[in-house]
Structure formats: structure tokens, C-alpha cells
Amino acid sequence: MNMISLKLILQAISLLADLIQLTQILQPLLY
């Protein structure tokens, strides 16, 4: 259970990082 939850948490963190990078890239285009 702990290993699976750790993997899910790491995947969620990596997804959040990708979203943050996307927003940082798109921000100059939007504003």
C-alpha cells in the first residue's frame, strides 16, 4: 500500500510540475 501510494503521489507531483511549466510558457502569450 505505501509503495503504491508513494508512486501515485510522485505521479501527481510530476503532473503538477508539468502544468506549472505549461502555465509559465503560456502566460506571456495570454497577457
Task: Tell me what you see in this structure.
The protein is rod-shaped and about 45 Å long. With 31 residues, the protein is mainly α. The N and C termini lie far apart (44 Å). The mean pLDDT is 92. Helices cover 94% and strands 0% of the residues. The relative contact order is 0.11.
Features:
1 helix; 31 residues; single chain
Query: End-to-end span in angstroms?
Result: 44 Å
Query: Helix amount, in percent?
Result: over 70%
**What does the overall shape look like?**
rod-shaped
Taken as a percent bin, the fraction of beta residues is: under 5%
Uncertain runs: none
The count of DSSP E runs of length 2 or more, i.e. the number of strands, is 0
- Largest sheet at a glance? none
What would the average pLDDT be, to the nearest integer? 92
Briefly, what is this?
The protein has one helix at residues 2-30. The chain has 31 residues and is mostly helical.
Q: What does the secondary structure layout of this molecule look like, with pairings?
A:
Blueprint: H1 2-30
